[in-house]
Amino acid sequence: MRVTVATLLIEHAVIRNCTHKGVKHSAIMDTTTAQYTAYEQWKTIPLSEPPVLSIIIPAYNESERIIPTIGAVAYAVSSMGMPWELIISDDGSRDDTVAQVEQLALVNARVIKAPQNGGKGSAVRRGMLAARGELWVFTDADNSSPIEELPKLLAPLRNGADMTLGSRGMAESSVVGKSGLRLLMSSVLNKLVKLGLGLPYADTQCGFKAFKAVTAKKLFKAQTIDGFSFDLELLYLVQRFKLTAVEVPISWYDAPGSKVQSLKHSLQFLKDMLRIRKQDLLGQYQLSAADVDVKLA
């Protein structure tokens, strides 16, 4: 078999996943043949039916992390037994993130390009509204929430929930490597969210959320916040539109290279909480989501 960039990234994903589970490298190739075959088929054969699942990864200057994350996602999801598509929503990267993804030539993956950086919320919205599946998921480019946790998010959707959110804040959650400062800031902000917006969740900001397509269309068409706090607005809209969201405990690892700036993002977070309240008081969220004009950059 000719060794390609795609082949190498998948082997990276296999080794990473098996290492987490304590499997030695020598045992890997004997136990993953079917899974690798499923990936190869997904990589080279276009879907013959509409996707059931759409996975969206927002990316901004992620040239150092995007390849192993795509490898982990593609390898894991291809073996789940459902047709799926991958969307990389690039937010105006100035490095070679887009070139790296396009070089992989994955036939069931697309890159959505923005002409300039608009913020994480903008990138997620753009990717989500390009999705074609019945279930939509967004996950971060650093794979901090391992894609192996995905079945936990999908199960409540199949049981009637409109949205699920991965949570680092529940008693059953597992969080590794998060600094003391970030833990403190998260705790303080979470208390303010409960007081200021009445949101009952233990973790609003984890970058691992899933939606039914019909729900996602309503939420993302009504979304106005383009930055870090967009999750807050989505969850507020869930309550405003009388939808159901289920919080699911997950494992989470603090990946190197985080773009979170604790002080800067915390201040913006507080401003966006006030903005959400103001927009609600002004009646902006009274509108039917289908009537909201969304302008994508």
What keyword list fits this structure?
seven-stranded mixed sheet, alpha/beta, single chain, 9 strands, globular, Spore Coat Polysaccharide Biosynthesis Protein SpsA, Chain A, about 300 residues
Describe this structure in words.
The protein has 297 residues and is α/β, with parallel strands linked by helices. The chain has one domain (5-291): Spore Coat Polysaccharide Biosynthesis Protein SpsA, Chain A. The protein is built from eleven helices and nine strands. The strands form two sheets. The chain has a seven-stranded mixed sheet. A two-stranded parallel ribbon has the order 6-9. α1 packs across α4, α3 (33-44) crosses α4 and α8 (180-197) runs parallel beside α11. 42% of the residues are buried. The model is unreliable at 18-31 and 288-297 (pLDDT under 50).
Q: Looking at CATH, which topology would you report?
A: Spore Coat Polysaccharide Biosynthesis Protein SpsA, Chain A
Mean model confidence by pLDDT: 86
Number of strands: 9
Please report the distance between the alpha carbons of the first and last residues. 41 Å
Which spans of ≥5 residues are poorly predicted at pLDDT below 50? 18-31, 288-297
Strand content: 15-25%
Radius of gyration, whole Å = 19 Å
User: Mind telling me the CATH class?
Assistant: Alpha Beta
Order of helices and strands: HHHEHEHEHEHEEHEHHEEH
Strand order of the largest sheet: 3-2-1-4-7-5-8
Please report the number of helical segments.
11
Please give the oligomerization state of what you see.
single chain
